[in-house]
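Action item from last meeting closed. Structure (187 res):
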């Protein structure tokens, strides 16, 4: 039996607990996150950029189970969390599409912690308008380590402008624009 690991608060801060997100946005982002993750992990790391949107925290809260936990009574919530911890400690099965994700906003001062990062759960890392050099260093670190990831890691760079060399997700029906460089967005 393995000991449970905690949310990596050195790398990221949890999303703001807000109300429900737009259902279409939530479904589209969930589909993007789950692509290449289930039933077999074929894409340990996916990276895209997206325009700022007020509902991104809400989508992250849906993925990480915060909304589900808020709907449950105190004891039901405790039981739900214990079941998740028990499963993580006693089973070697992969992450499932209905399991909670670790979601959060990247801490800008945590570039050094990205090197040691290994996801305990499927992870959605949101990055706010990073400067080009810092973003390049972070993404290079994540790409370099991604072959060792046993859980999917999804990175969304939240910026008004499309980032060069990565997939751009557009909110209208979450259509994807081709990357503007020949550099692949995943390893």
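Sequence:
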């Amino acid at each position: 039996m393995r000991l449970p690991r905690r949310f990596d608060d050195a790398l990221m801060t949890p999303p703001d607990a807000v109300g429900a997100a737009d259902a279409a946005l939530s479904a589209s982002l969930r589909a993007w996150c789950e692509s290449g993750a289930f039933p077999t992990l074929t894409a340990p790391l996916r990276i895209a950029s997206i325009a700022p949107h007020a509902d991104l925290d809400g989508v992250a809260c849906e993925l990480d189970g915060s909304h589900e936990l808020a709907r449950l009574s105190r004891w039901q919530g405790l039981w739900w969390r214990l079941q998740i911890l028990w499963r993580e400690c006693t089973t070697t099965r992969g992450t499932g599409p209905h399991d909670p994700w670790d979601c959060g906003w990247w801490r800008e001062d945590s570039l050094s912690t990205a090197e040691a990062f290994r996801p305990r759960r499927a992870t959605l890392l949101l990055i706010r308008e990073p400067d080009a050099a810092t973003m390049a260093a972070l993404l290079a670190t994540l790409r370099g380590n991604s072959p060792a990831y046993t859980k999917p890691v999804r990175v969304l760079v939240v910026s008004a402008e499309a980032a060069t060399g990565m997939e751009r997700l557009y909110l209208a029906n979450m259509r994807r624009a081709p990357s503007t460089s020949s550099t692949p967005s995943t390893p």
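Note appended to the action item: The chain has a mean pLDDT of 80.
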